[in-house]
User: Fold this.
Amino acid sequence: MRRIAIGMMSMAALSMLLIGSCSGKAPLGVTLDETPVISGGLGWGVVSLSYVRLMLEPSSSADDSGTARRGEIGKISARSRVFSGRDSGVWYRVEIGDSVGWLREESILVYRSEAEARKAAEAGA
Assistant:
C-alpha cells in the first residue's frame, strides 16, 4: 500500500512538472556579432613560431602593429573567434613589450600565470 502511495505521488509530481513546463512562450534567442570577444583576462602566452606579426585586428589581411619571436612572453587581454573565411578560428590579443596586437591560436601557447609562461619559455616551449 505504501509503494502505491509513493508511486501515485511521484506520478502526480511528474505530471505537474510536465504540464508546468509547457507554456506557449517562444524560446529566447541570442544573436552574437560575427567576431565577438569571447573572454578577457586570459592569462599569459608564449610565442611558439619563429617569427610572427602582431595584427591590429583579428585578420591576416589587417595591418601589423609589431612583431615577436619564439619564446617571447606577452599578456593576453582578449580572445576572439572568427567564424568564416581564411581567418576563421581563435585569435588572441596580446601585449608583448611595447606592441599590442592579435595572434592566431596556432602561434601562441597559453598559460594561466606569468610564472608558468616564463617557465615554459625558459624550457624552450
Remarks:
- DSSP finds two helices and seven strands in the chain.
- Residues 2-20 form the longest helix (19 residues).
- The chain has a mean pLDDT of 83.
- The CA atoms of residues 47 and 72 lie 6 Å apart.
